[in-house]
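If you are new to this repository, start here. Below is one unmodified record pulled from the training split, so you can see the exact layout before writing a loader.
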Amino acid sequence: MAKPIDRGDILRLVVLGIAVLLESAALLSVVLNLALFPGQIYPNIANIAAYLLPIIVGLLSKRLDTALVLAVLPFIILAAIYLARFAPLWTVDLVQLGVLAQRAANLILILGLLGAFGWLVRRVLSRLPFAPFAAKGA
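And here is the target side for that same chain:
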């Protein structure tokens, strides 16, 4: 029988889901160069959000594998949608394919490392005397 989820975990999971959705919107805005909201400061906010939200996702995750998957998942889904909808068929030669794969791999690596960094910060904070994340096996 599964143990019941307490109120703190429900709140953490809701905030984690919101952070993943916001990360998806920030990556969509940055990668496709779209302004989702008008204003001159929006590009700066979107760029900062694209780097901070994977860290927040990692910080809210209790397990390393969850932190890595949820930090990288928005880009993987964005890349799959782009390839299915917008990529031209059979017009990419091997040189272009290598450049595109390198850019995608770099972004996946950066997002994964930022998520892992957030998870490591959570681990460090859980070992402090006041332990903000030390609730039941964090």
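Two things worth knowing about this chain: Residues 58 and 67 are 4 Å apart (CA to CA). The radius of gyration is 18 Å.
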